[in-house]
Amino acid sequence: MALSETTTFVLHKVAVASRRAIAARLAERPGLTLWEYAALAELTDQGAVAQHVLATGLGIDASDMVRLMDDLIAKGLVARDRDPADRRRYRIDLTAKGRRTTKTARTVIQEVEQATLQPLSAAERATLLKLVAKVHSVNN
Fold first, then answer.
1. What's the confidence (pLDDT) of residue 60?
2. Which of 19, 23, 108, 125 is 20 to 30 Å from the Cα of 35, by its Cα?
3. Going edge to edge, which strands form the sheet with 86-94?
4. Confidence tier at 40 by pLDDT (50, 70, 90)
């Protein structure tokens, strides 16, 4: 069987090309890295959370999370405050600028996804998402 006939190999190739395109477009507008976007998207989905919870959700080391948060704070996209429920922890929340930036980033990602999946009909795209989400849920 040729590599091009292996589903996981083809999925990987599509994912790599898409990830590169997304990273390039996010760097242009709104000026984010993929990790910065991931943190903002996670905060959008979860709301304000303890910094260690965000690190766990993203699957990154605590020291890397501190640097990531420092960068996002410097850009005015998130705020880091003491958690009122536990003063030993920090809680991260989006700023208004962070919410606007996340919205812009999601639009950019949708544009890249549209271009990447352009050969598929809307129904095929929905089916593809359902199928890869099913595989992902079993493997995580």
1. 95
2. 125
3. 49-50, 86-94, 78-83
4. very high
